[in-house]
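Here is the promised in-class demo. Please do not try to memorize the tokens; focus on the logic of going from shape to residues.
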């Protein structure tokens, strides 16, 4: 195995520059340094992969001796994906730091839209979970827990009710001429 001296020097320069830039306190410099270190790691894996050869797609032929090892290629693809994910995370942190710096003294505090609410108004707005449980039980039982004058549910329709209730909506098939 013979590694190109040029690739080794480029890899060493990328590592040195990346580590030096990552030692700064700025998140932008940390991001640039991390990208350089990630590219240097990809070059290291590429240099360690060995000599070029045929692709390891078809085995059992006479060209098996010239076949390259696929593990370094897989490691390089994995390193690229990890580098991309961490770069996206650092970019999100850089954006968040920039956004907070633009707010100035206000910082991360935003006005509370619910500050005027009192405990009694909150209790009126939200029912207790016991009321919800009772409603769920009533709907799952399937019994006649509804109001007999309530005609909103089509399953509760009784044609005899139309004779007494003239405020009920007209249903299909109803031939009551009084309406």
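The designed amino acids, position by position:
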């Amino acid at each position: 195995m013979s590694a190109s001296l040029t690739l080794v020097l480029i890899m060493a320069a990328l590592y040195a520059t990346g580590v030096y830039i990552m030692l700064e306190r700025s998140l932008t410099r940390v991001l640039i340094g991390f990208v350089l270190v990630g590219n240097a790691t990809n070059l290291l894996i590429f240099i360690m992969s060995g000599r070029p050869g045929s692709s390891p797609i078809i085995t059992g032929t006479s060209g098996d001796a010239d076949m390259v090892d696929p593990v370094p290629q897989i490691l390089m693809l994995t390193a690229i994906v990890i580098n991309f994910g961490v770069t996206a995370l650092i970019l999100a942190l850089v954006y968040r730091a920039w956004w907070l710096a633009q707010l100035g003294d206000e910082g991360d505090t935003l006005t509370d839209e619910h500050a005027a609410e009192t405990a009694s108004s909150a209790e009126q707005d939200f029912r207790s979970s016991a009321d919800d449980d009772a409603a769920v039980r009533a709907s799952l039982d399937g019994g006649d827990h509804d109001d007999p004058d309530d005609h909103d549910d089509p399953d509760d329709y009784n044609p005899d009710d139309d004779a007494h209730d003239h405020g009920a909506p007209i249903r299909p098939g109803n031939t009551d001429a009084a309406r």
